[in-house]
Amino acid sequence: MAFTNRTGTLSRYGTAAGTGALAVLVLVAVAGSPAYVGWAGNHTDPNSAAGWYLRVLAWPAWRIDAGDRAGGVLAADLRAILLVILAAALLYVLPASQVARVPGGFSQFFSGWAAFVLAGGLAGLLATFLGPGPSMLGALQAASAGAGYGFLTGWIIGTASLGGRA
């Protein structure tokens, strides 16, 4: 039933949560990739707005190998993995169009954006607590960085959520 609309035929569009989750996966896969993280670190100016923003996009950095990081690849990539899982879950849990006073695209956009802000903060917090060497200060700093990342990049997820049906 999830793939059908009210008339029973196959829908040409996915759900708002589904398109948002796909956008999260693509954003984390591309902007968190080792190639992009290396490029942003070496070819952008951190003192310019554009360079700083391109570096912010690399926050959920993931690695193919753990390098010298304790705990292996899973610990090195925990933040990116949690971000994708939590954002997808929150996009499905926050039913914007069912509870919004203003139905339609406006509520889908802000629901997608809010889900990504919350997912970024939770991913930073949980990755620090579940990773090697957990500390309360580190968890709070990571949650702040994650929520900031979600706030500054969540418009991408909100925009992707516009295309789907509620």
From TrEMBL:
Transmembrane region(s): 12-37, 78-97, 109-130, 142-163
Keywords per UniProt: Membrane, Transmembrane, Transmembrane helix
Designated name of the protein: Uncharacterized protein
